[in-house]
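Per reviewer request, we include the raw input and output of the structure prediction for the construct analysed in the revised manuscript.
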Amino acid sequence: MNPIANIWKSPKTSAAGLLIGVVTIASVLSQQGITLGRVGSGTVVALASGIASAVLGLLARDPATSAATPTSTAKLGVWALIALLVSAPMTACSGTSVAQNIVNWTPALQGAVATVDSTAALLAPADAPVFTAATVGFDAASNLLVAQAKAYLANPTASVLAQLQTAVVTFQQQVNASLLSAAKITNPNSQSHVLNAINGVATIVTAILTLVSSISSKVALARMAQQSTIKLAEVQPYLDRQSAVALVATHYGEAENVAAMQVAQAEMSAMQAGF
């Protein structure tokens, strides 16, 4: 396909791609601390990203073009969502909305932990004690995390946020440690059950970690990353991307290609922050 000719045939889609590029580059520059100067109370990089995201949103909602079809409009809507995901680390999210989002994960988190609790019965006798010891703190950690999210939702102060940050990093470390322990189980059937169970919890905890990180200062993020001694890169070989995408898609009621972008962005953001 001739890329030049394609620009003229699909101008809105081409413009969307260009705007996505602007947002992506701005995100990378921002994460590296490059601002290109200040404009008003913000930076040039943040301004460029904000304008690109806004224009992309207008393109996705533009019904005036007679050639526009429901399919093309939906695709542009997906591009707009991706732009918001990519630019999310640069923008200050509402602490209240983040806390509500975390609370909304409560049923899925409790269900995933319940699956972990029932998995020991499916394992070979020699593997069950290892798995139980590796996941013994999941119930308490999940209950604490949910309680802290509800507390922050009711009282969004810096001190309560600090407690929420500690709770999510502590749980993330427990999950990472359990994945490393599961990798030592040599029985194929047992290992399959164990990894499937832990992956459900890992997906949700990573999503919550990303949400909490989005409302945390650079100083707080550095402190959280320092507390994270088992890095995501160490456990990534044991993570199931397909099941994570399916879980996120079900939770948000969205297409799996959109969920795949969210999962990839959450992992990338966490690793870039030092987790």
